[in-house]
Amino acid sequence: MTTQTSLSTFLLAGPEITLVIAALVIFLWGAFGGLRQGWLVALAGIAAAACWPGLALVPGELVASGPLSIDAFAAFIRGMVLAAGAGLCLVQAGDHFRSAVTHGPVRRDASTCEEAGTFLLLAGLSLVASANDLVLLLAGLELVSIPTYILLALKRTDARGQEASIKYFFLSLVASALFLYGMACLYGIGGSTSLAEIGARLRSPDARISDTATVLLPVALGMVLAGAAFRLAAVPMHFYAPDVYEGTGPANAALLSTLPKVAGVVVLLRLLSLGTGGTLGMMALNQGVAGPAAAAWLTFFWQTLAVLAALTMTVGNLMALMQTNLRRLLACSSIAHAGYLLVGVAAAAAADATLAGRPFPSPDTAWTGALGGTTATLFYLATYITATIGVFAAITYLGHRWPEWTSGPAPQPPRQEVTSVDDLDGLSSTNPVAAFSLAVFLLSLAGIPPLPGFWGKLSLAMAALEVDWTARATPGSRRVIFLSLAVVLVLNAAIAAAYYLRIVAAMYFRSTKRGVQADGGIGAGVAMLAALGLVALFTIQPRPLLSASSRAGESISAPHALLATPQASTTP
Amino acid sequence: MNPFSPSGRLLLVIVTPLVGAVVAWLLGSRGTGAVRQSAAVTTVITLLGTGWLMLSYLASPEAAAGEPYAVSEAAWLVDGPFNVRLSLGLDGLSLWLFGLSALLSLTAVMVSWQAIEEKPVGFYVLLLVLEAAMLGVFAARDVILFYVFFEFTLVPLFFLIGIWGHDDRRHAAVKFFLYTLAGSVLAFLGLLTIVLWNASHAGQLTFDIAALTAGMAAHPLPMSAQGGWLQMWVFLALFAGFAVKVPIVPFHTWLPLAHVEAPTGASVDLAGVLLKIGIYGFLRFSLPMLPDATAVAAPWIFGLGVVGILYGALVALAQTDLKRLIAYSSVSHMGYCVMGLFALEPVAVEGATLQLINHGLSAAGLFALVGMIYERYHTRSIANLGGIASRAPWLTVMFMVFTFSSIGLPGLNGFVGEFMVLLGSFQRAWSGVAPLWRTGYLTMAVAAVAGVVLGAWYMLWAVERVFFGPSREPPRDHGHTANSHGTSDDTRSAHGHASQHGHASEAAPPTDDLRWYEWVALAPLAVFVFWIGLVPATFLRPSADAVRKASGPSARAFAARMQEIAHPTGAAATADSLTARVPRQP
Q1: B483 to chain A nearest CA, in Å?
Q2: Domain hosting residue A162, numbered range
Q3: How many domains does chain A have?
Q4: Per residue in B118-164, pLDDT tens?
Q5: Residue A565 falls within a domain, yes or no?
Q6: Which pTM does this prediction carry?
Q7: What is the distance between the alpha carbons of residues B98 and B218, in angstroms, rounded to a whole number?
Q8: How many beta-carbon contacts under 8 Å exist across A and B?
Q9: Do B75 and A498 count as a contact with CB atoms less than 8 A apart?
Q10: A447 φ, ψ to 5°?
């Protein structure tokens, strides 16, 4: 493993570089060449990035060079980011049509800025996934944040838009600062900016490390978690989401509810892998989790996340129950989904923490596989992104309601955007395809079988239940905590169904005299249908996605949860 | 796979309604007639396929050996040892319920023949999708697959109630969905816990129900303070899911609302099949897999069953709406199933499973008939109806048949089921429980007998008011005055008026009687009402072994517990702190 930056580093970063070049092309062509169809170039750029060799990786392999390391996890996230990016570009293309209807065909120059900004964001996210160095990780995260400010600012057409853009800007800066402080502490523990080296220090049996770590670890973890929680919109950094989603356009809301969450999950999992070193690290040391510092790290990790997960799920869902504005409702539901994702991360950390001090691969226990927490998280993330992009694509596609009928030469009333749940009344008779797609996406988010969201919740519940499975269930033990977390998770799924069903009920059970124009452009419609196709695919054949996420998960934490061989002690 | 092998045919039977749904959807542009005909043809084909499958099951060596029949497997969500499979098959427990689903689906389509005028395509598509899901629940051999079908049944029904229901349909649909979902997510966790427990003790992760049953017999979940009472918790989690579905009495509030608001076709499926899934779930999972917890909970749930019988009957007595009355009679009759199941006496459990079929036939028939009355007179209010017998004699005959089936007239099916349940309960009271408990069990059994009397009372009272007495034909131009339910904003009732005016001009009595499609809906049910009543052995024998096997572990655990209470030995008293926790007199 070379730590020097060399030509091969740039080769590894090929997809990101392609994305940045495409962004520059779109910026310049839009400014000077009068490019209007930015999304076509965008899709071409994504195709070029996806064709980059090295995206496909032999399972279990790790290619590292300089500050980059590409493992199965990074490859999985890259693929997911590119796919989501393609969907988001289409939604944005539709959103241009939509805003042109609202505000007239103005500000054509700005239209390509959005695609270009999204591209920078994608490149940053992809870098976060493959970063093996704190500095690059931070750079990647900033590359995610800064284009977001631009995207939000481009949509500040009214007071709410301005509020959204300013609110996000300041809060994001605070989150970044907190994150940076956490990183400084990590540097203090590890004495290096390389994640691999920090991880190695944490896992070393050296007592001095653990002394430093006892002081610095909680601080580092708290700060880093706060930063990640902002990206995820998890409690306690969740409160901005409804205002921002409401103030900005649906395309931006789609972006905010997917890509920053990916960033948050990636950061959390990368930091989690500091404690475990992934399967490769465990194999190298022949030990599950070595070193008191690593064990302490994982313990802090799961304890904090378990609390945050329970709070986030519940708060998000309870807030969503009270919303009538569609985008606010979806913002709250995205908070709840961040909570579900945290359950998986917490389960992964806890499952790895149980391996502390045990030999790996274990000779005396049988490693039979269930799903690990990381696998569950990644699988859930993919199903969530598919359905969420679909929902926002559908909302973008629907665009505006028909104006109130007026007679005589009175001036046309202003077009009214689809904003509230009531605006979807009777959609099943006016736009049956959009209504059906929306219903499928919402039911998938609610976790109704056999849609992909159900498979995601199944894997998360499984991951939470199997933590420390063989231990005795005493009050306050790790096992009981995760059992209760699983109970909270499924009850929240039932609560969530209430507000998703409200939307479905509005579309199917009510009638309307006004209807919806469906003027959101063909791009959003295509994105909606593509997401519907993916949902159908994951429903019928979830297997490839699950194996991909389990390969990716294994490079972060232990390959499978520990299930013990038959033992007599636990039977009564 | 050979499509004519048993497993191929089972797969085909489940897929046929889905294919039919697509066909119905494609025929949508041809109008209502084409859609409903294709739906009818689909259900008939499915029914014939099911009949063939069941006959070949009865003749098969697997049936004699108690093995599952027509087993097919395919990978679904697989990653390494984690494998959720599409695993289907029939056995003695599921055989009759599977057949009932196919039979009632035909009824559901037929009763909707004239009733559904708005958006017929969606209605029949959903009805067929629901049929596939119902067939799937009973054929699933994989826990997750079972759960997928179990919950998926909610989705088509949600839309059926919410779009084609009556006034308060939105509220009813949402309440039905959320109530059932809240229970079943807990059941889901319970099932996952069983899977994981089995995996950690058998050393291999499996979702196969048969393997799990065997695994739980070999390594039962802990039922002691040391093991965290895990078995009890899992039992309660499953109870949450299945009790709401049955519904057992404190959890029944969604049912009358859903039934009253649902269109007739959905009511038929809901009462006829979906309520049975709860009891089926107990019999498939709780009784065989969690015997110790079942033994502890059985007296309480037995009591809840009796409470349900009495409560349902008393509330039914107070109803003025015919459909609501039958909905509460469902609550009451499902009480017998609950009671029989948790008597844990072989006769009673067999009676309970037979009673599932009986109630499926009679409740579906009654709901269908109420729908027909509503179509004719646009009211379900008992006070506004009267003397229908003179105008619709055959309709009256059919209503009488299902009423007598429901109240357990000897010679009809209801009698056999209720008799077996009560017989088993008295047997349990006399010989199967500790002396201290005898009084309690006897009281409950006697109260259940009183429920039979109440059941006859409210049903016959309603029949007398609605069908006999002075002909109190509701005014033809009713709806807004006489009808408390079909009030103004209901667009369907406006359609109904139009067609009703057409009938009014003819005003000939025979038009009120059963039409051909109504005969098709009711006649098969009536045939089985008599068949089960006269030759119950045909239906009891194929499932007897499976039912005894499924309830066996719990029955033994209960017997052991009673033994311990009756003759507390020193060792048992110290080892089992459990008995001290349970009051002697439930």
Answers
A1: 22
A2: 7-403+416-554
A3: 1
A4: 888 999 999 999 999 999 999 999 999 999 999 999 999 999 999 99
A5: no
A6: 0.90
A7: 29
A8: 136
A9: no
A10: 80, 35
